[in-house]
Structure formats: structure tokens, C-alpha cells
Amino acid sequence: MSEDRAVVLLSGGLDSTTCACWALREGYALHALSIDYGQRHRLELERAAQIAEALGVPHRVVRVDLSAIGGSALTDAAIEVPKDQQPSGAEIPVTYVPARNTVFLSVALGYAEVLDARALVIGANAVDYSGYPDCRPAFLAAFERLANVATKAGVEGRPLRVLAPLLQLSKAEIVRLGLELEAPYALTVSCYDPVGERACGRCDACTLRLAGFAGAGASDPVPYLG
Amino acid sequence: MSEDRAVVLLSGGLDSTTCACWALREGYALHALSIDYGQRHRLELERAAQIAEALGVPHRVVRVDLSAIGGSALTDAAIEVPKDQQPSGAEIPVTYVPARNTVFLSVALGYAEVLDARALVIGANAVDYSGYPDCRPAFLAAFERLANVATKAGVEGRPLRVLAPLLQLSKAEIVRLGLELEAPYALTVSCYDPVGERACGRCDACTLRLAGFAGAGASDPVPYLG
Q: How is chain B split into domains, by residue range?
């Protein structure tokens, strides 16, 4: 068991919630960080706060207005969220937010410096999201190397680790892990295009999530449209 | 001469303004980016906009609220800005903003992706600011490696360069370069603790700046207190 501090990037989604539960089981003194990056839907941030509270973990929100530079269907209202598509690992989807994980990990790195934390925990996944460059193992390894030359702690010999416990898991394996850890999945939100509190059930994120629960032989506690 | 696009991080200070002029001379189609990171003094952002306009360069501001995680005299009003100190390269000063250049370069990386730019230009300097880990050559090299596994362009074989043209220059050499490039120094602001539009003349940033102009045999066009 570690008693070190760790910062978990908590989006309010299924993966990051599973990560937070994993880090608690590992014994980290956990601090949750959410990034308000100008996402179209505010539900994610509300849920992140509720999940942190349910887990008894302190929570901060840092605003990073990525919509000021545009470029993604998730921040730019002029780009349509694709529906009813077969998710593919081959292409980079329009829901890709430019340099998203680089920016998120950088802010988490700053928070880790303030807290003198020894780990950053991120729900990156290379199986279902291999179309995103910043979800790949080479990216996470490069960020860890950067972190240890970028910071006071790093240059003073107290290294920081970047932990991505879901990196090589399928969505079904993630769901199984989360259920084992009693993750508060009813509070999570994955949908790119929710209507009120209900998930659309048709965007890439919903399709993957539903397949994950099906593969784990479980039912998803969140409400869907229709 | 390059005709590639480049993103320059423009703070409104002397170094980043010199960098912007340098990148224009190199022939880059330049886009200026300022980060509103919750700095105590808003003058920097106003001046950055004026400098971009003077140079005829498009300008964007992205808000990244680093004050939400605290930890620096530049964003946290509870920490005092040191005055009348001898700048020292040995220690990390309280004006250090956690992971500042990592966060700034990450946002610039996102903007570079949107623009399909080939270079990030940053006024990092390892001579006067060697107390800051994120101003060192090893940091910049690590960020460039990260950038090229983090982004669509990088993984598709269109690499991005991180250019820090001032890295090994003394402040006097920077001032000489900027004067040669006719940098609009009258618009720049360096002071950590200005009163209205006047620089304090006593903080580390003022002390370095004044020594730089003296070393270049020039006079600083900005107004000082007293």
C-alpha cells in the first residue's frame, strides 16, 4: 500500500471513475481534478463533483478554455457529433480534442507539484480509443519523462509516475474491474450528446459503453433515450 | 525562409516579444497565443494584444485558471512577491508557477494542431531563469519528443519543432537582438508587481530587465516608479 498522494483526472465518465476507485484501492491519498475545457455539456462536471464526494476525495476544477482554439466536435458547436457509426481504431475521430490529454496531464502536473504528489492517474485506454494519439503507451511514457525534467520534485530526485491502469483493458474488462471495486457507475456519464440526464445511446461513446456492460454480463445503471 | 505556420507564446513581456519578432524574420506565418492563467495583473494580457496588433499577427487568448490550484506568488495573493533580492540561479523562486511552461506549451500544441503549424516558439531562457526547471534545454527537448507522439500531425509524420531562440542568450543579448529587430519594447511589461502602468523597478523581473538594457547600452522605454 502506498501512502503517497496522487492526482486523478476525473471527467465524470466511466473510465476515470474506475481509475479513481483503483487508485484508492492502491492506497493513494487521492485528489481528484476535473478540467472544464469548454465541453458542450456541463453534466460531466456536475457528475465528477458528485463522484468525488461519493468516494470521499477532495475535488478541484480548473478551467481551460480549449473552445477558444476550436477544432473538435466536443467543444465546437459547428462540428456535428457522429451518430450510429462503427467505432474504428484506424482514423482520428472528429470528437478528438486537440492536445487534450497533454493539456489535462499538464494541469494535473501543476497540481501534483503543489501537493507534492508522486503519481498522476489517467483513464487513457489504447484498446477502444487507439484512434487518439494521446491515449497510446508511447504518449504516456513521453509525458512521464517530460514530467520528471519539468518539475521541482523531478529535478530534485522525487520522481512522478504516470499511471494508466486501464491502458490495455477492453471496455468489458474495465466494467468488470469497476463493478468489483464498487465504482459509483450510476453517477457516471459517457455520452457525447446527452439529452437532459439521458444518454443518446447512439454516439461512439454510448456504443462502446453499452458493449462494455454487455460484455461484462452486467446492465448499465444510467438512463438512455427511447 | 520558411512559409510554415508557427505559434508563439506571447506573454506581453520582453522575451516573448523578441521571440515573435525573431519568428517573423525567420519567415513563419505567425499566430500569437496568450495564456490567461489567473495572473494578478491584467496589464500583461492587454499589452500582448497591443503587441500582436503592432506586429500584424493574429492573437488568441486561452484562459487556464492555474490560480485554482495555487502555489505561486504570481497567482496566489497570499504569497508575497520578493523585492530587492539578488536573483539567484540556485533556488526555485516563489514566483515559479507550477508546471507553467508545460501547461502553456500544451495549449500551444493544441492550437498548433488546429492550425497545422510546424513550430512552437517560446521565450524560455536558461541563463537568467535557470532556477525554473521548465526553462532548461532538457525540458524543451522532452516537450518536443512528447509533441511528436501526442498529435495527429506528429504520428502522421509531420513533426513539430519547439523553438527557443533566446535559450542561451543573456538578457543584454536578448535586448540587443530585439532592438535590431525593432521589437515594440515600449509596449512590453516585465514587472511582477506594477503600479498602474509603471514598473516597480525592484522585483526580480525588473532587476533583470534593467540590467539587460544597461548591458546592451540602451535605455528602457517603459516607465518606472519613483
A: 5-215
